[in-house]
Design brief:
Layout: H1 9-21, H2 34-44, H3 49-62, H4 66-70, H5 74-81, H6 88-103, H7 112-116, H8 123-134, H9 143-152, H10 162-190, H11 194-209, H12 227-230, E1 248-257, E2 263-267, E3 278-279, E4 282-283, H13 289-297, E5 303-306, E6 310-313, E7 318-327, E8 341-344, H14 346-349, H15 356-382
Parallel strand pairs: 1-7
Antiparallel strand pairs: 1-4, 2-3, 2-8, 5-7, 6-7
Bound molecules: iron/sulfur cluster (SF4).
Residues 148, 151-152, 209-210, 215, 217, 220, 222-223, 226, 228-229, 234 line the site of iron/sulfur cluster.
Length: 385
């Protein structure tokens, strides 16, 4: 630990800063029940506050409590997560809600071990729930907190590495418990529920002051003791993940439309990439779309239009997408794997549980349909009487 700090001075600086500059009116901070804190913490993993807010409000509007979430179908849950990405978070949230309802009478456990045993809840998320909702003194270590600690205490190395992670956890724990030991009484008097407030303050500090690209050290409550600032080496901390080129994969998406303009969607298997979401049928680049139609729709060679290629990046690979629009000449009476497929109007499809690149294409198809309808109306209105 940086010896320049008194044991409780760190928490005190952070708490005083939070009292004046912290964010206190985020939707999940108003009436912070354990359930609302939990949902917000899961949504905030790998996603910024401004993106999360509208999703959180819609999600809570539809599933206002744990019981409502637990009794919803997975498809409904995914539909309200659609566009937020990292869909395993939504599936785990849903599974955990069911477990809590069955095994804990619908109340989120107040013990760290029991929370960590639930799908999708790691040590940091459990610490956030217990401190923010129950006022318990547990540290957190999300990306923002890692950055503040790595800079303030000049912790070299990539925080994803387990040795560095352990070091940062030890720091986070030590700061919290030192503050509790040395100044618990005073902190309690000054800041009711201070562990939750302290953790929120650390997250806010990382998100709004000690930002990744442009830390505002002039307005930072830790600047007098920050080792990275003192040694003019802020941008060396935290060290980025060692770069390895991500592999590329390619897929051909089939945007199959019947004569009524409805689109064919396919539900993905429950686990794995985009598990449980609706996407377009896909084939490898070696397979022909005409062959897929014969095999699955019992129809020969529809009209094929190629749409512009696009790319979607995941954390572990890049996906090159080659969309083809297949316009069927007649309606489909038979369909192979009909329990995994659905014919659906374009407008409705765009509101279903679909991943972002599928939604983008659906909106393009809707715009194309609208443009051709307008063109048709235009032609009719200029036709001589
Ligand atoms: S002084 Fe600057 S680098 Fe250090 S913790 Fe504050 S904002 Fe981050």
């Amino acid at each position: 630990m940086n010896q320049a700090w008194l044991p409780d001075a760190f928490a005190d600086c952070v708490l005083q800063w939070f009292a004046c500059h912290g964010r206190k009116d985020l939707p999940w901070q108003l009436a912070p029940t354990p359930y609302r804190v939990w949902v917000s913490e899961i949504m905030l993993q790998q996603t910024q506050v401004a993106v999360v807010i509208p999703y959180f409000e819609r999600f809570i509007g539809c599933f206002p409590n744990l019981g409502a979430l637990a009794t919803a179908t997975e498809d409904e849950v995914l539909q309200h997560w659609s566009g937020l990405g990292y869909y395993a978070r939504a599936r785990n949230l849903h599974r955990s809600a069911r477990i809590v309802l069955e095994q804990h009478g619908g109340e989120l456990p107040e013990q760290l071990e029991w929370l960590i045993a639930l799908p999708g809840i790691g040590r940091s998320t459990a610490g956030a729930i217990l401190s923010l909702a129950y006022g318990q003194a547990h540290a957190i270590l999300d990306g923002n907190v890692k950055r503040v600690l790595a800079r303030c205490f000049a912790v070299a190395g990539w925080p994803g590495e387990s040795r560095i992670q352990k070091h940062l956890w030890a720091l986070a724990d030590e700061l919290l418990s030192a503050a509790a030991r040395a100044g618990l009484q005073e902190l309690h008097l000054k800041h009711p529920n201070w562990p939750g407030t302290y953790n929120q303050a650390m997250m806010d500090l990382g998100a709004t002051v000690c930002t990744r690209a442009a830390p505002d050290c002039n307005h930072c409550p830790l600047s007098r003791h920050c080792l990275a600032l003192m040694t003019n080496s802020i941008h060396q901390y935290p060290q980025p993940k060692p770069k390895r080129p991500l592999p590329r994969r390619a897929t051909r998406w089939l945007l199959v439309q019947d004569p009524d303009g409805r689109i064919l969607l396919e539900q993905r298997p429950p686990s794995g990439l985009w598990g449980g979401l609706w996407t377009f049928p896909e084939v490898s680049l070696q397979e022909s779309s005409a062959h897929w139609c014969e095999l699955h729709l019992y129809q020969t060679a529809p009209r094929v239009e190629k749409l512009p290629d696009r790319q979607h990046s995941f954390s572990h690979f890049h996906l090159d997408i080659y969309p083809e629009r297949l316009l069927l000449k007649s309606a489909i009476s038979q369909l192979r794997d009909s329990d995994r497929h659905l014919w659906v109007a374009l407008k409705r499809a765009s509101t279903m549980a679909v991943p972002a690149p599928v939604k983008a294409i659906l909106l393009e198809l809707l715009a194309m349909a609208k443009a051709s309808k307008n063109q048709l109306l235009d032609c009719c209105s200029h036709r001589p009487a």
